[in-house]
Design brief:
By secondary structure, this protein is an alpha+beta fold. It has helices spanning 28-35, 39-47, 64-76, and strands spanning 14-18, 21-27, 54-56, 59-62. It is built from three helices and four strands; from the N terminus they run ββααββα. The protein has a four-stranded antiparallel β-sheet.
Length: 77
């Protein structure tokens, strides 16, 4: 029988209830990878108010729609 392990916490997506249904939350590494920046750079962007994120304990989480909205604002501006 194959040993099925859970993915590490940093690779798990956490579902939350959003306006359009359930939207998974991305961790800093996954969200930063979408933007092509370092996770710490993304965290600084949150602290400057440039992008929406939520601090859960020691970890940052991001909605994919927030990443998309930021990209759209950058393209429009």
């Amino acid at each position: 029988m194959m040993d099925q392990k859970k993915p590490p916490a940093s690779e798990r997506l956490l579902p939350i209830l959003g306006r359009a249904g359930i939207e998974p939350l991305l961790d800093s590494h996954a969200a930063a990878a979408l933007l092509g920046v370092h996770p710490r750079t993304l965290q600084r962007m949150v602290l400057r108010g440039e992008i929406a994120g939520v601090h859960v304990g020691k970890l940052w989480r991001f909605r994919p729609s927030a990443i998309d909205q930021w990209i759209e604002r950058q393209l429009a501006g």
